[in-house]
Design a protein that fits this description.
Number of strands: 10
Strand order of the largest sheet: 2-1-5-4-3-6
Helix content: 25-40%
Radius of gyration: 20 Å
Strand content: 5-15%
Number of helices: 11
Distance between the termini: 33 Å
Order of helices and strands: HEEHEEEHHEHHHHEEHHEEH
């Protein structure tokens, strides 16, 4: 029996949202499904780079370059709060007239059910018409302590970092700005900190961008083929089933989803583990992650909203510790 409640492909999230047309929902689904097919595939790290582009709009918000819409942020779980806080910090950085790069680390965590590290590097490109933020998401074989060490090292190159990053949850909520030396690129600088030469070679040659374009061409017809089944699903079992069908379709193109990856378990793994008992799908996969969620409260030091009910020990916004500020973290 499986204990995880997160799926790599949560097809329920791909239903059209309020004010969204079916075609807009399909386009969003293609983006999400393509990202999952890159990050969750059984492949070497250099083949799992997910590159995507944001545009900074007139309201200083990061919007998907293709759809022109800002990602929808869900504030339901502790992980949501930490990662959405990081995303808002990315928007603040993008809106500032500053040089350098930004790095966001998602360290592995048993509590958040992430089995490997993620690193997203943001690069700002200004044109006459718009400001583009090119994001590259890397999968890394690093521990939480290793992520903390690297983040602290690169943070020393910029005076824009104000939070003391000394815990995994603070790192998850706090992107780190860094300024590589002027004579090398950001990826040449990071290669000195992260010894994964095949990854950086992909970026240097622009192959990560080409891989993303190729991945879209593979995933787009799969979404088109199965989207009606997503909208017709009536329970958790049917949502898991259509996700499994999409995974199997991708396998025909040579893209195999990990059974248990950093974003959750595959839908095929869920079907295999829970076969013979359809009713249990609703128990395991229907909003179970929010079952112990209580109303948020404000940190008494920095007054940011913090989700309660998870035993958080450090405020992800200001670093205040629970023993010093009561229930602020």
């Amino acid at each position: 029996m499986i204990k995880e409640t997160s799926l790599a492909l949560n097809t329920r999230n791909w239903l059209p949202k309020y004010g969204e047309t079916v075609e807009e929902a399909k386009k969003r689904t293609v983006n999400d499904f393509t990202a999952a097919s890159l990050e969750q595939r059984e492949a070497p790290l250099e083949e799992r780079i997910n590159t995507y582009i944001y545009v900074l709009d007139q309201n200083s918000q990061l919007c998907d370059k293709e759809s022109g819409k800002r990602p929808t942020l869900r504030w339901e779980t502790e992980t949501d709060h930490l990662e959405n806080t990081a995303f808002e910090a990315m928007e603040d950085w993008a809106a500032k007239d500053s040089s350098g790069n930004l790095a966001w680390f998602s360290p592995p965590s048993n509590r958040h059910r992430y089995t490997e590290a993620r690193l997203v590097v943001l690069e700002k490109e200004a044109t006459e018409k718009e400001i583009l933020i090119v994001c590259r998401a890397f999968c890394l074989p690093h521990s939480e302590n290793e992520c903390l060490y690297i983040a602290k090292e690169i943070a020393k190159t910029s005076d824009q970092n104000t939070v003391n990053i000394n815990a995994g949850d603070i790192l998850r909520a706090t992107p780190v700005s860094f300024n590589p030396p002027s004579n090398i690129t950001w990826y040449e600088y990071l290669e000195k900190q992260i010894s994964e030469p095949k990854i950086w070679e992909k970026v240097k040659n622009g192959n990560d961008l080409r891989n993303k374009e190729e991945a879209i061409l593979v995933s787009e017809p799969v979404v088109e083929k199965y989207f009606d089944l997503i909208t017709a699903a009536k329970n958790a079992h049917e949502y898991v089933l259509v996700g499994a069908l999409m995974e199997r379709e991708m396998a025909r193109s040579g893209i195999i989803f990990q059974a248990r990856g950093s974003c959750g378990i595959s839908n095929q793994e869920a079907l295999q583990s829970l076969r013979g008992n359809k009713g249990i799908f609703d128990t395991v996969f229907t909003n179970s992650a929010t079952a112990n969620y209580e109303a948020s409260f404000n940190c008494p030091k920095c007054h940011h909203s913090i989700p309660s009910g998870y035993g958080i020990t450090v405020c992800p916004h200001c670093g205040a510790r629970k023993e010093d500020y009561g229930k602020c973290a």
